[in-house]
Design goal:
The protein has helices at residues 2-14, 68-86, 94-110, 113-116, 122-140, 160-178, 182-185, 207-210, 213-223, 226-229, 234-248, and strands spanning 41-43, 46-48, 53-56, 59-62. It is mostly helical.
């Protein structure tokens, strides 16, 4: 790592760039029960300390590979955006409120959902459901204690967790069809039977790794009806998979 820092710093200087060591963070991913001794990391003459969590391209990563911090980040952004919408909520129609939820609040849930949705624990799912329930109340003009059961599947065709899984499976489906990006496609292994069009689920002994797109996601993908997986229509694929996810739950 220190050798890489030296190379990056040398490249930066040759290209008239400055490596800001104060904004450089390091994190060691491991099981929560394991403590590992890590040698000192030096970048541009300054020591880089290990952090418990870091933000990379908007995705909050924890050292124990859990998603609680990222889900709290999503919830915080949703609840901070709702008050300004509620100020005009009484003077705009339902269709406009639904459009505002889908355009302004839903992207907080869907950003990088392919990475984290299959690794959510019960606490994370509760956090996301609570935030999305607040979105439903705004979209349909409901009060705090109104029953949301009839509305949870109406806004997106399924609940928020099912919708995120649907998007992740669509992403996996596009990789299968297009063969891109290469660094993910090359990790996929296809079953010999062309009739089922199944993917071979890799083996892993690490619990955290098994709750990812390329492990748990493949299991979900293989359980989708074969005729749906063989479809090349993007819009129709989303609708049919969302119905399948809703019925599965």
């Amino acid at each position: 790592m220190n050798s890489d820092f030296i190379n990056v710093n040398a490249w930066s200087q040759r290209n008239d760039l400055l490596l800001n060591a104060k904004k450089t963070k390091a994190i060691c991913f491991s099981n929560s029960c394991i403590s590992s001794a890590t040698p000192a990391l030096i970048a541009n003459g300054e020591t880089i300390t290990l952090d418990d969590d870091v933000v990379n391209l908007g995705l909050k990563l924890r050292k124990d590979m859990s998603w609680g911090a990222h889900c709290n980040r999503i919830s915080s952004r949703v609840f901070s955006g709702l008050p300004s919408l509620w100020q005009q909520g009484n003077v705009i129609g339902r269709n406009m409120r639904i459009s505002l939820v889908k355009s302004l609040l839903l992207p907080h849930f869907t950003y990088c959902c392919e990475v984290f949705v299959f690794g959510l624990d019960a606490c994370c799912r509760k956090t996301l459901n609570r935030a999305f329930d607040a979105c439903i109340r705004f979209a349909y003009g409901l009060r705090r204690r109104d029953d949301l059961h009839d509305y949870r599947n109406e806004l997106l065709g399924c609940d928020i967790i099912g919708f995120l899984k649907c998007r992740a499976l669509l992403f996996l489906h596009k990789i299968v069809l297009t063969g891109t990006p290469d660094y993910i496609y090359e990790k996929l292994r296809f079953a010999q039977s062309t009739r089922t069009a199944n993917l071979i689920q890799p083996r892993t002994s690490v619990a955290r790794t098994s709750k990812s797109l390329l492990f748990n996601g493949i299991s979900y993908y293989n359980s989708i009806p074969t005729q749906v997986r063989q479809s090349r229509s993007g819009a129709g694929w989303v609708v049919r998979v969302s119905v399948w996810v809703r019925d599965l739950r």
